[in-house]
Structures are given as structure tokens and as C-alpha cells.
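Lecture notes, part 5. Sequence design as translation. It can be helpful to think of inverse folding as translation between two languages: the language of shapes and the language of residues. The source text, in C-alpha cells, appears below.
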């Protein structure tokens, strides 16, 4: 498990954010897209609560957390400062805690989560296992139409976490597959691309890229 990140410097983070935004803009232009369509989400799983003020100083406003308890604690400590999305594995029993604090839940992939969302609504992205990895969460692409039909809350997009790869290009086909699924269902958002491959994800239609290590180290 990676260690928590301490001693962040606002100027250094700001410079890395600006570099990432420039790379996003260049990738968007290569694909004939408007860079304004793409949101940079800072993944803060390894950023402790007492370092979040540095991220605010660096100009970050959209944060994503993988753990429900941590998201609630961090959002409560900085009311009105950040917009929060939940991006980690979703336990259905955590929906009640998360719903009041998040804009979107990116990782919905079970009927038990849908049942809880019926009681504690939040807008969602459906997690799709486009690579068919046994070790990964997400529904199979063929299950998507029925899953969307069962959703009791607005489905605003799709999310995927493709394999760890040595070459970013190796994930292009997975990003393209998610884009085609979203287009087929009229869904706006594509949450795909992390520090390892976000430029390729943008070229293939990402509207939200989830960046962590590239912003902090």
C-alpha cells in the first residue's frame, strides 16, 4: 500500500496541475475536441485531510476519494471548498453516508447499490469492466442496458478502470469501447484515464480524468 503524502507545496502542485491541463488541452485538440469539455479530478486517496488546504491553494476544486469514511471526513472538514466525487469500490451500505456529500458516484456496479440509491439518491456513473478482468469490479458491457433500466437515479455516464499497462496506447481500445457504450445510451460523462494514460483517454472521449500521483510527486 502506498504511503500518505505529506509536505505538499502549493506552488509545486499548481505547476503540475498546469502541466496536466496543458497535456489535456493538447490531447483534446488532437482529437478535435474542446478542452473545456474535460474535467481534471484530483484523486486524494493518499492525501491526508490536513494537506487538502494546499490543494485548494493550488487551485484544485474537484476532488475524488476512494474510501467513503475518508470522503465524509474530508468533505465535512472543508465545507463549500471542494466538489466531491466518489471514485472507489462502492459498498452498498456506504451509499447513505456518501449521498449528501457527493456530486457523482463513479463506481456503481451492483443491484444492492441501486437498492440503496433508491433510498438515498445521488447521480451516478456505472462502472463497466470493458477489459473483462476477473480481478476488477464493474458490470459486463452486455449487462449495461438492463442495469441502466433498473437504476432508480439519474445515470450521467460510465466509468472504467482498465489494466495497468506499460504503454498508454495499450488501453486505447478499452477507452474507445467505453465511449461507444456511452454514445449508444446517450450518456454524457466518461470517467476514464489516470496518471498512466489520461492523454489517450482524452483522445478517446474522456470527460473526467482521475489524476493522483502525477499531481503530487
Amino acid at each position: 500500500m502506498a504511503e500518505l503524502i505529506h509536505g505538499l507545496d502549493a506552488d509545486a502542485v499548481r505547476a503540475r496541475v498546469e502541466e496536466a491541463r496543458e497535456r489535456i488541452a493538447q490531447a483534446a485538440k488532437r482529437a478535435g475536441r474542446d478542452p473545456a469539455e474535460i474535467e481534471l479530478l484530483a484523486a486524494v486517496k493518499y492525501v491526508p485531510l490536513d494537506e487538502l488546504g494546499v490543494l485548494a491553494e493550488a487551485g484544485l476544486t474537484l476532488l475524488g476519494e476512494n474510501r467513503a469514511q475518508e470522503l465524509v471526513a474530508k468533505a465535512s472538514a472543508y465545507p463549500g471548498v471542494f466538489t466531491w466525487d466518489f471514485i472507489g469500490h462502492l459498498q452498498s451500505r456506504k451509499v447513505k453516508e456518501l449521498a449528501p456529500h457527493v456530486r457523482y458516484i463513479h463506481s456503481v456496479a451492483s443491484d444492492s447499490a441501486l437498492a440503496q440509491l433508491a433510498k438515498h439518491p445521488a447521480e451516478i456513473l456505472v462502472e463497466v469492466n470493458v477489459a473483462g478482468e476477473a480481478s476488477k469490479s464493474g458490470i459486463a458491457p452486455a449487462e449495461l442496458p438492463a442495469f441502466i433500466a433498473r437504476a432508480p437515479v439519474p445515470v450521467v455516464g460510465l466509468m472504467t478502470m482498465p489494466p495497468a499497462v506499460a504503454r498508454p496506447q495499450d488501453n486505447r481500445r478499452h477507452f474507445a469501447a467505453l465511449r461507444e457504450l456511452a454514445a449508444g445510451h446517450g450518456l454524457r460523462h466518461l470517467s476514464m484515464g489516470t496518471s498512466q494514460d489520461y492523454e489517450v483517454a482524452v483522445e478517446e472521449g474522456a470527460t473526467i480524468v482521475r489524476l493522483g500521483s502525477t499531481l503530487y510527486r
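The translated text above is only one of many valid answers, since several sequences can fold into similar shapes. The chain is about 35% helix and 15% strand.
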